[in-house]
Amino acid sequence: MNLIPCTACRYCVDGCPKRISIPDLFACMNTKQIYHDWNADYYYNVVHTANRGKASDCIRCGKCEKACPQHLPIRELLKDVAKEFEK
Ligand code: SF4
Ligand code: SF4
What is the pTM of this model? Predict the structure, then answer.
């Protein structure tokens, strides 16, 4: 299982021009991987992307990656998230 090692510090969130709630989307992804939980889809669609960006809205500007202390490849990971939740 390939969980995303995001610590939910949220340093990446403020600078995102698309207002993507990156750590929450990663948490949905991890939850789905662990529990195969349909609730993760609910949280993705109804809670975390209602007034914010979806993973597919990412314009790949890279601001978030500069802010991430874990050096996560956020742009690539958001692609995976979009594949999982926006199919
Ligand atoms: S690369 Fe995507 S997620 Fe990161 S700040 Fe830019 S638009 Fe937001
Ligand atoms: S900056 Fe990195 S570790 Fe912190 S919440 Fe964003 S993706 Fe997760």
Answer: 0.94
* Alpha-carbon span 33 to 64, nearest angstrom: 23
- Tens-of-pLDDT digits for all 87 residues of the chain? 789 999 999 999 999 999 999 999 999 999 999 988 889 999 998 889 999 999 999 999 999 999 999 999 999 999 999 999 998
Classify burial at 28, counting beta carbons within 10 Å of its beta carbon; exposed 0-12, middle 13-18, buried 19 or more.
buried
Ligand 2 atom nearest residue 10's Cα: 5
**72 close to ligand 2 (CB < 6 Angstrom):** yes
CB 77 within 8 A of CB 62: no
AA letter at 87: K
